[in-house]
Amino acid sequence: MQPTATVLVYSDNAHTREQVRLAAGRRPAADVPQVEFLECATLPAVLDALDHGGVDVCVLDGETAPVGGMGVCRQVKDEIFRCPPVLLLMGRPQDAWLATWSRADAAVTLPVEPVEFADALAALLRSRLSVGA
After folding, report:
1. What is the pLDDT of residues 35-54, one digit of tens each?
2. For residues 129 and 33, is the Cβ–Cβ distance under 8 A?
3. Given this model, what pLDDT does residue 63 score?
C-alpha cells in the first residue's frame, strides 16, 4: 500500500473544506492509505493541481461559485488524461441527475455526513489505487 493518498478538495467555502477534512480523518478506512489534502478555492488552482499530477481523488463542491463542482467535474473528465475519480458534494439529493450528467464517480449531499462521506471516499481510493497498482 502506498504511504499516502492525495485528495484534492475544491470549494470556495472554507467551512465545507473543513467538513471534508474532518469527515475523512487521517484515514477514511483501514484498508486505504492515510490521506493528505490539497485544498483549492478556484478553478485555475484545480486545473493547475491536476496538470501537475499526483492527485488520487477529487472532492468537488457542487455549490461553489462562480464555477460549480458539477461543471468542473465535466470539464476535468473531458480534459485531464486519466482523470482521478471524482466525489461530488451536492446541495440536494434531487441533484443526483446532475451528478450523473457531470460524470462524477460518486456523490453525497451537503452538509457532509461523516460515515457516508468516508465510505464513498474510501471506495474511490480503493478503485484508484487498485487500477494504479
Report:
1. 999 999 999 999 999 999 99
2. yes
3. 96
Nearest to 131 by CA among 56, 33, 72, 45: 56
Whole-number Å distance between alpha carbons of 66 and 3: 35
**Number of C-beta neighbours around residue 17 at 10 A:** 19
Cell readout for 92 is 440536494
Predicted local confidence at residue 130, as pLDDT? 83
Q: What is the pTM of this model?
A: 0.95
> For residue 58, which phi and psi values (nearest 5 degrees)?
-110, 135
* Helix ranges (DSSP H) in 36-113: 43-52, 69-79, 96-102
Give the strand order in the sheet containing 106-109.
34-40, 4-10, 57-61, 86-90, 106-109
* 60, 73 contact by CB (below 8 A): yes
Helices (H), the chain: 14-24, 43-52, 69-79, 96-102, 114-132
Q: Measured between alpha carbons, how far is 62 from 71 in angstroms, rounded to an integer?
A: 8
Residue in the structure block whose three cell numbers are 487521517: 26
